[in-house]
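[Discussion] Sanity-checking designs against the backbone

I'm trying to build intuition for which residues belong where. Below is a structure token string of 215 positions. I'd appreciate it if someone posts a full sequence so I can compare it with mine line by line.
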């Protein structure tokens, strides 16, 4: 414990306090000897970085619990590694910087449940660079992260339905290996339809606004 405290730049008393609070996992024991490793040191450095960013110990404990309950990245990618998306490795403080003030345990758990996030030791892996950047951009525009994640869950449901529709269509008239080859066509249809739907929605709101103002 003394070696761990020295490496982390904190006191033995602080290490003991963190262990009692469940912020770090118990050491591996051999008889009366307690062995700490690099994962303990990484967690202590993460705690220090989150404290510097204004997180409380209670908040850090809740975040740590959520991470510990989260899926291992091997399990996450094992479900089906993304073929066109680029996973991103992040530390907990780096993730906090993306969503300053909104990286709550509830939002973290929602992202874990969606399969956006997985854990790899003390690192966090986001399944998609594009989704991470878009989510952060929406939050910067003033949309609460909780609402972004709730919308993402609904989008996921519609996307699953669209993927099933396309796959069934292709498989009814072509071989299974053709699904991947024709994938760009499905994406083009969805992008075009979404673009036109946004046009209809936005133009409809624009034309109805004067009517509301006259009333």
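Best answer:
Here's mine. Compare freely.
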């Amino acid at each position: 414990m003394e070696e761990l405290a020295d490496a982390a730049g904190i006191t033995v008393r602080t290490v003991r306090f963190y262990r009692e609070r469940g912020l770090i996992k118990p050491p591996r024991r051999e008889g009366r000897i307690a062995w700490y490793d690099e994962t303990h040191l990484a967690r202590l450095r993460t705690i220090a970085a989150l404290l510097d960013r204004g997180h409380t110990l209670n908040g850090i404990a809740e975040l740590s619990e959520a991470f510990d309950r989260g899926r291992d990245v091997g399990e996450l990618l094992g479900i089906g590694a993304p073929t066109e998306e680029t996973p991103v490795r992040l530390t907990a403080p780096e993730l906090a910087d993306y969503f300053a003030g909104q990286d709550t345990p509830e939002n973290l758990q929602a992202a874990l449940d969606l399969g956006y996030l997985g854990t790899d030791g003390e690192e966090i892996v986001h399944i998609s660079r594009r989704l991470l950047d878009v989510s952060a951009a929406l939050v910067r525009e003033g949309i609460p992260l909780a609402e972004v994640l709730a919308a993402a869950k609904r989008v996921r449901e519609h996307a699953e339905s669209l993927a099933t529709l396309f796959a069934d269509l292709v498989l009814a008239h072509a071989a299974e290996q053709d699904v991947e080859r024709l994938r760009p066509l499905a994406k083009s249809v969805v992008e075009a339809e979404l673009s036109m739907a946004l046009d209809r929605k936005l133009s409809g709101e624009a034309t109805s606004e004067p009517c509301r103002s006259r009333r």
